[in-house]
Structure formats: C-alpha cells, structure tokens
Amino acid sequence: PIFELSNGKLGHISGQVDPQQFRNETAMIEMAEELADLSPNVMIKIPGSTQGMPVFKHLASKGIATNGTAVFAVPQIMTVAKMVGEGRKIHLQESNNPRFGWRAVCTQMSGRLEDSSAFRGVINKQNLNINPLELRYASEAVIKKCVGLFVERDLPIKILQCSSRLHRKPNGEWFYPHIEMFAGGPLVYTIPPVVIGDVMFYYKDREIKPAWDREVPPEMIEKLSQVEYFRRSYDENGYDVEEFNEIPSLLENE
Hints:
TIM Barrel, globular, 13% strand, 13 helices, alpha/beta
C-alpha cells in the first residue's frame, strides 16, 4: 500500500540473488527476473562483481529496480551507475508504458571497506600513522566523490550507505562518524536496529549537525593514500571491471 500511495517513491523491499553466484551472469539474471515477478515493489540486490555489471544494465532496460551490493570503491560505484543509466535509457526508449516505481541505488559498505585486511590490516602491519577515526574518512571521500559525479553526469541513481561503525572520543563520548559525516546528504541509508538504538541513546541530548557540504580534508586524502587499497578505491580508474572480483572487501564478504 505504501508503494502505491507514494507513487512508487516509498515501500520498496529488497530481494537478493544468491551471492555465491556473483561470477555467473546468466544465473543472476534468471534469479533477478524471478524475484522481480513477485511484486512491482521488489528491488533486486545484485553484487558489484565483474559479471554483475551487465546484469544492472539488463534489469534497468526492463524497468526493474536494483540495489548494487558488495560495493566498496569508486570504480565499482561509477560502473554500476553507468550501467543503470544506459539500461534506463533503453527502457524509456523502448517502452510505451515505463515500469511504475523504478529506482536504483548502489550500496557503499563503509565499514567493510575500511576494516578490510587490505586497509586496516595494512595500516596495522606497517604501523602507519593513521588512527581508527581517520580511517573513516575513506568512505566519506569515496561517497562524496561519487555523488558529485552522479550530479555532473546526470545519472539516475543514489548511494545507499551502510556498515556504519561506532567510535569513542577521547572525552568518552560515543558517536557514529559515518552518520555524522553524511548527515544532510542526498543518500539512502541502511540502519540496523542496534544502530537505531545507539543513535537514540547516544544522541538523545545532542544534535546531529549536517556535514554533507564539509570537504574531506586534503591532508586526510594524502594520509590515507599511503595505503594502496585506498588509492585504488578512490581513483575512478583504480580497478578495471575485469578486476572487480579481486577487490579485497568483496572477497572477504562473498
């Protein structure tokens, strides 16, 4: 009912293809179309693998809503956005009655990018001068860069931010840097019940101030760039599509 009453803006639910099939384009398409037939408000979760990219284009060309999952880096996000954009154009050109309530989002798994053995693990192993809180600037840099490119290229997609991590300030105050740094931004969020509970408790006496327009400090980008995984994740051309299946965070979460 919410889906229909909101003219397709609200009320989507996710249906995920088998993540173990992330290397099988045909299997993902078959599962996705089967899930999409269940209800018009089903948004299909497709992994951001090499074989997943053409699936985004195919589904968008059919007017099927999608959610890119197991996505961490700028090259993945921007390729998903490109595929969705191309597929959407095909659907609008070929359909006399475009599918109702179409949406596309791409999930950036913030904590899973930063906590990877290729990121946090390297920092610890090489004893780099990057503290746990500074590490969280990585996803801020990735997400804000991509949203800027979405606007610049008029791409019909939004970032869905997830995997927020809880931190404690030197004064003992608990907070969620990922929630604070993206407050006020044009994003969609996945917030688990435990995080909702934390926010209601830790922020009950203080305001979450919008920080979306805050620039990521250039010195922080430089600092994080000591780690190859960040350099490649922040660079739009850091990974070729053929290399997506080798992205450390994807392999760690398959």
